[in-house]
Design goal:
The complex is a heterodimer of chains A (about 120) and B (about 180).
Chain A lengths: L4 H9 L9 H45 L15 H40 L1
Chain B lengths: L2 H12 L6 H19 L3 H17 L10 H19 L9 H6 L2 H9 L4 H12 L3 H12 L4 H8 L3 H24 L1
Helix pairs in contact in B: 2-3, 2-4, 2-8, 3-4, 4-9, 6-10, 7-10, 9-10
Classes of the chains: A mainly alpha (about 120), B mainly alpha (about 180).
Chain lengths: ~120, ~180
């Protein structure tokens, strides 16, 4: 079939297909607009998601307040902090601190990895 | 720019370097336009569909997994964009009875299409090419003009390689019949 010189020639002779000047720069402008739109849509989606989750939590809180806590009389809690409880608090703060440190490490290494990947893609 | 460079550029675009898309545009805009312009007769429509193709490619870039080459993936988007655009406009293409095509021997078609110096034949062939439907035009453009292998054409048009070969043979026979019809008139 590759020997079909006549078909190849006739196809070549048909209208010369060249894009008008400035097509690529116009196209890039559209790409940048599309990117901005994509970011805007992602932002709106995130806002909607956060709002609906927050609203859900508020509704759940309201429901709990109404159904479970309505019968209770409010009184200020009295706190008796014993030395044993204090050591437990200390332990909890220690664990919380460790979690925060791990989060910081995670963020640091993630950003380093991303930079490295970008650098590799550059060469 | 080889395939590895291209994949790195795609990765950079995914990571937010949108200006890198201009490399892909410079490389593929003319070939994509050339394919669409051969399928869609109007130059303005072809330009608009080329724009749509690149916009779709940019939006769907995250879905490109690299299981085929980027050019195959892009040609597939271009072909599908052109197909859906023509679906709206109901163009009627001449139908040829399958029995008539079956009667044409491969050797007859081989003999007529091997020659490329016969001006009268080339003119008739150009008219016959204009009577092919969209899928047929895309197939022969990819095969004869873009010199794509059958396997790649199959990937672009979402057909099997055997199906592509059969369709190519039938298109040759159809062109042969259309040329003969012109001679008879």
């Amino acid at each position: 079939m590759k020997q079909d010189k006549a078909i190849a020639k006739a196809l070549k002779r048909q209208t010369e297909s060249v894009l008008p000047d400035g097509f690529n720069s116009r196209m890039m402008e559209k790409i940048f607009l599309a990117e901005a739109k994509k970011k805007r849509q992602a932002f709106i989606f995130n806002i909607c998601l956060i709002s609906s989750v927050s609203l859900g939590l508020i509704v759940i809180a309201g429901y709990l307040m109404r159904d479970y806590l309505s019968g209770m009389t409010f009184r200020m809690p009295t706190m008796h902090v014993t030395s044993e409880a204090l050591s437990q608090y200390g332990f909890c703060f220690y664990i919380a601190f460790l979690v925060m440190v791990l989060f910081a490490f995670d963020h640091f290494f993630r950003s380093r990895w991303q930079k490295k990947k970008l650098k590799e893609a550059g060469h | 720019m080889d395939n590895r460079d291209e994949l790195q550029i795609i990765e950079r675009i995914r990571l937010g370097e949108t200006n890198q898309f201009s490399y892909l545009l410079n490389r593929y805009s003319n070939v994509i336009y050339s394919l669409i312009a051969r399928i869609i007769p109007s130059k303005e429509d072809a330009e608009e569909l080329t724009q749509d193709t690149f916009l779709k490619a940019f939006r769907k870039l995250d879905t490109f997994k690299g299981d085929c080459s980027f050019s195959t993936w892009l040609f597939r988007i271009a072909y599908n964009t052109a197909v859906s655009a023509t679906r709206k406009s109901k163009i009627v293409f001449p139908l040829i009875d399958e029995k008539v095509l079956d009667r044409v021997a491969d050797e007859e078609a081989d003999a007529i299409f091997e020659e490329d110096e016969n001006e009268e034949l080339l003119q008739k062939l150009e008219i016959a090419l204009g009577q092919l439907n969209l899928e047929e035009r895309a197939l022969i453009t990819l095969y004869y003009t873009e010199n794509k292998p059958v396997a790649e054409i199959a990937a672009i048009m979402e057909l099997t390689a055997d199906n592509v070969k059969i369709k190519l043979f039938r298109i040759r026979k159809k062109l042969y019949v259309l040329i003969n019809k012109q001679q008879a008139q």
